[in-house]
Amino acid sequence: MKRVGVAGLGLMGSGIARRLAGTGCDVMVYNRTASKTAGFSRVAASPKELADSCDLVITVVTDYSAVEQVMLGDSGIVQSKNRQLLVADASTISPSQSARCAQALRQGAGIEMLGMPVMGGPAAAESGELVPMVAGNRQAFERARPIIEKLGSQVFYIGEKDGFANAVKLALNLNIALIAIAVSEGITLVRGAGIDPAVFVKVLNSTYFRTGLSEKKGPKMVQNNFEPSFHLKNMLKDVELATGTAQQAGIALPVTALAQQMFRAASNSGLSEYDYTAICAFLARMNGLEK
Question: Which of 46, 73, 195, 236 is most buried, taking the most CB atoms under 10 A from its CB?
Fold first, then answer.
């Protein structure tokens, strides 16, 4: 399985495409905005063309409407006659949405789709340090495994049921959202007390309670540096997917529901294009501490 297609060349998709090209794969790309394909030698004009030309297509797009268009649109993957094709969707969508696409491809074209959301950012994608989580047909997973392992050495197979990997991904992302809020509120409390919040972050990171977020993002948050590695608008989308999935399952996630409202308000206040840790800037604005 050498011919790999990547549909969606945002921050994550472009990193995945460059990683695979750098590890010996014959990579072909597709992106709705053609200008983003600059730098790649093989470019498809449509998802169907990508599917016709590849053994595995990895889709990495923003939301379900984009996934649906790439998978099931008029020039989508479902139109391909390539019966040897596998699809791995790395987009963050809900479990029910992932299952719907997998079933539509299976029934409409005889194509197996794996749900393959990943943990890690664009830098991890380029260095092969993502953490893929995979759900779907086990034989399809074993076929795709050599390529998936180029993206990260720790690959978790969640199970056969469509959508299972997406549920785990949403659970992980809601944890990130809540940690970002907790660190932001700590910074806000210390700043409001007249203390340099850099002290708070330094002490936090010397304790057992430090996190990767507090270590890598905390100093930037104190400096009001919210250059995006993952946009706040996308974190809002993921938290909303988590609350929607909880409602479908009939369970209560009260703190996640509050986080959804906070990220919605932050997005509406003009912070949607900044990093998700700009929730810290939103709290500063709320409390009259904005610089």
Answer: 236
**Locus of tokens 């608008």:** 233
Neighbours of 43 (CB within 10 A): 15
178, 255 Cβ separation under 8 angstroms: yes
The residues near 211 (Cβ < 8 Å, ≥ 6 apart) are 179, 183
- pLDDT category at 245 given cuts 50, 70, 90 is very high
DSSP state, 163? T
Cβ partners under 8 Å of residue 111, min gap 6: 51, 77, 78, 80, 82, 83, 85, 86, 87, 105
At residue 290, the pLDDT reads 83
What per-residue confidence (pLDDT) applies to 249?
94
Q: With 80 as the cut, is the pLDDT of residue 247 above it?
A: yes
CA distance 185 to 46: 45
Question: How far apart (Å, rounded) are the C-alpha atoms in residues 177 and 181?
Answer: 6
pLDDT above 90: residue 209 = yes
Q: How would you classify the pairing of strands 118-119 and 3-7?
A: unpaired
- At residue 90, what are phi and psi to the nearest 5 degrees? -95, 10
Residue with more model confidence, 9 or 290: 9
* Nearest residue to 20 via CA among 121, 150, 143: 150
- What does the radius of gyration of the chain's CA atoms come to, in whole angstroms? 20
Rounded distance, CA 14 to CA 6, Å? 8
Contact between residue 165 and residue 247 where contact means Cβ atoms under 8 Å apart: no
Q: Where are the alpha helices (DSSP H) in 27-134?
A: 47-53, 64-72, 95-109, 122-127
> Which domains are present in the chain?
3-161 (3.40.50.720), 167-286 (1.10.1040.10)
- What's the CA gap between 4 and 30, in Å, rounded? 11
